[in-house]
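Troubleshooting log. The previous run stalled partway through. Resubmitting the same two chains, unchanged.
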Amino acid sequence: MTDATSAGAAPRPARSSSILEQDARTRKRNAAESRFKMYGIAAIGIGIFFLCVLLFAIVRNGIPAFTQTFITAEIALPGDRLDKTGNRDPEEMAKVSTFGYKPVIVDGLVRALEDAGIEIPFEDKADVEKMISAAAPAQVRDTVLANPELVGQTVEFRFLASSRVDGYEKGRVTRGDLARDKNLDAEHLDVVDAMKDAGMLERTFNWDFIFGADASESRPEQAGIGVAMLGSFFMMLVVLALALPIGVAASIYLEEFAPKNRWTDLIEVNISNLAAVPSIVFGILGLAVFIQIAHLPQSAPLVGGLVLTLMTLPTVIISTRASLKAVPPSIRDAALGVGASKMQSTFHHVLPLAMPGILTGTIIGLAQALGETAPLLLIGMVGYIASNYPDGVVSGFMDPNSAMPAQIYEWAKRADPAYYERAWGGIIILLCFLMTMNIIAIILRRRFERRW
Amino acid sequence: MNPLKLTASAVAIAAVSATAAAARDQVQVAGSSTVLPYASIVAEAFGENFDFPTPVVESGGSSAGLKRFCEGVGENTIDIANASRAIREKEIKACADAGVTDIIEVRIGYDGIVFASQLNGPEFTAFEPADWFKALAAKVPNEAGEIVANPNMTWADVNADLPAEEILTFIPGTKHGTREVFEEKVLLQGCEDTGAMEAFTASGMSEDDAEAACMAVRTDGKSVDIDGDYTETLARIDSNTNGVGVFGLAFYENNTDKLKVATMSGVEPSTETIASGEYPVSRPLYFYIKKAHIGVIPGLKEFAEFFVSDDIAGPDGPLSNYGLVSDPELAETQAVVADEKTMGNAM
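Second attempt completed without errors. Output:
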């Protein structure tokens, strides 16, 4: 403005009407402001756009993993093949392996197709086995061993369809794709269409994807994320049980009791630094300390939990200290003023008020740990086939297991394209968990946080 | 001192519970990521058919697996190492130093290595080892017999029958067992076929140096080392029309909707041609058993026997369906496992 006055006589008339008419400089400033707003909106827009693209891709690719194609067929269980001695003793019958059950299923399926009036266009009728999952023999065998009286009867079974048939139902596999595929032929798809018309084949929601165990590479249709989910669960228990008390204790001491000197400054700086350390570093530390020195078992959720605890601790400590700091000093002074000891004032007054903030920080820390993969690479939780449910609580901590993000990584690596879809489906489940945890954190903050 | 005590006691509790839970009842397997699919198929079937728990299978690569295998004897060490190559002398020594003296070597079958490109891409349908050597070698002899940096830019430069597309190959990185086979069976073979080997020795190189020169891959970006899995190679091929990648036969057979395979020396790769030995680029797959663990870890011997049984590893078994080329001498392997013949005695 001072410039304008010193500019001389010429701009005077314009200046007199400055309230209604903007001069050039004001226009320029206003333009700069609106430009800046536009940049901001554009930045947010780009962010939202990418988020939408990502979510769309995840949902579109992942949703098919939640449904699975099943084939229902009545299978005759001939006594002469499944129980050679004829005494229905499960121990004797266990000698017939799944390889002995396969032809039984093939025969049953061929008969079921003939009964339904579906023509089998391929020469070797045994080829119908390509349409059902390799898991089917084990399914029948387990049923038979559990109920030996079924032998000799005809029992209805609901089998998983093989991954190629399932892919066809989901539109992932076309007849053209199968031209050079040795897992399935285009002719099978004619049978599949006919079976669908006859009601023998249907696609339904697949709970086993969420709660089931991982499967080998030859049967992607059977794989589920359930065991890995348990692995993640046990790891989170370890993280919660260690990071929360250690982190809260450390921050209460640092915030309320510790003298302010060079040592505590040094500790403070290092905690902030630790929060920025790449997670893979904690993985290497875990490998060296917990596995090579302490000889804890490889791939165990306990070790994973310990490593993730190290990673989460700084987050918990920083957020706890922040929420302790946010409690106004007047509360402490009042408590001390009526004769409370330092410890009483902290535990009776400051800590309860800081609790919502501490819990929020802990939950965010847990969510971060839940999605972490890198440190698990080094302690053997990635690349592990999570096919066994833990037997109990101890085995849940100690037995080798995988974790959800590690399971997703593992699926994405596998050869069969059906696993690719499952990887996306796994991401949906993982995201649901993370979102739930974050929502809980937000609710806690909204409901219990007090502002002064 | 509160936090410190807590940490200390937590670690102590963890250590105590670890020793308590050490009585391991399942077989532990680790090693080659090539063998992993086969091992996990067998482990799954084993769990279904036996009362023993399903063995634990991990990947990590042949060398990493053998290193863990050689850490010593005891329940805290793995029982079986999978490998896509034979164990090396150095590793046997490392094993012996750690007390792992009796090792049973089991050959489970063969794995084919195939050369594939985009399904709708250029016509890469027939290769010779010589083509690959000329396309990928760091240095080649020119017509005058001088050793020069590889001048070939397109496949047509290498072999007039191949499409005039720029050379771009995706080959396994040096940590993969597959790379070794690729170097020996393709590059070295090609080197000998083209006479470059002689040219190298004629230029004053020792035999070892000449071999190394044969297997040295150019570093000008025409050949890309893939350290990840075949899925990564597939992704690269997907985005490069002129790319040619090196895959395992099983991986290719699962992705025939995206890839087309090329013949090598005129032979199309398939389980049949590899079993008969016609297809030149194949390698044996192994697993190694710690004999000291047999009888200690329940189910170990049963698992090994089950792995090599006709039902599993035979020509019609699930491994063969997945892409493993069954070993024509399976009966001998079965005998090795049954008699627990260790390496020293078997060879």
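Takeaways: Residues 23-110+284-346 of chain B form a domain with the D-Maltodextrin-Binding Protein; domain 2 fold (CATH 3.40.190.10). The longest strand of chain B covers residues 103-118.
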